[in-house]
Design goal:
Blueprint lengths: L3 H15 L28 H13 L6 H14 L3 H24 L4 H25 L5
Length: about 140
């Protein structure tokens, strides 16, 4: 899910599978609709690599996630995602920044902390994807 365009593409693929389009002559498609129980989302763009780098930077005393904020919140704006979801994404990004400040202060990034750190990418993208699916008529 590199960017907003890819999120939209995948959301529409899911929609097409849940509501197969009619045949060219307008008759119903013989394809059975699929009701996915779960959709697995990767982090957007290079978010995982950026979070890994942010962890290393925090160990060096610097915390900066503005590029991640720009990517995720810009995508929310592009789709005019509901305020509640935007707030959820912002809260996750704030929590991520707080975690990085903790890493900066204690000068430690354990494997468990690293797993938590990189999870923020998927946790943000899944909220954006669910909101986009809801916008295009696919309950998520």
């Amino acid at each position: 899910l590199a960017n907003a365009e890819r999120i939209d593409h995948v959301a529409n693929l899911i929609k097409d599978r849940t509501n197969p389009p009619p045949n060219e002559d307008g008759s119903p498609s013989g394809e059975n609709p699929v009701r996915p129980r779960a959709v697995i989302c990767s982090a957007m763009g290079k978010t995982t690599n950026s979070l890994l780098a942010a962890g290393e930077m925090a160990l060096e005393g610097r915390v900066d996630i503005e590029a991640l904020r720009t990517l995720h919140l810009g995508t929310c704006r592009k789709f005019d995602i509901p305020e509640r979801t935007r707030n959820d994404v912002e809260k996750l990004l704030d929590e991520c920044e707080d975690m990085l400040n903790g890493v900066r202060l204690i000068q430690e990034l354990s494997p468990k902390s690293l797993d938590q750190l990189v999870s923020y990418g998927e946790r943000c993208s899944v909220r954006i994807m669910a909101a986009r699916l809801n916008q295009i008529g696919v309950p998520a």
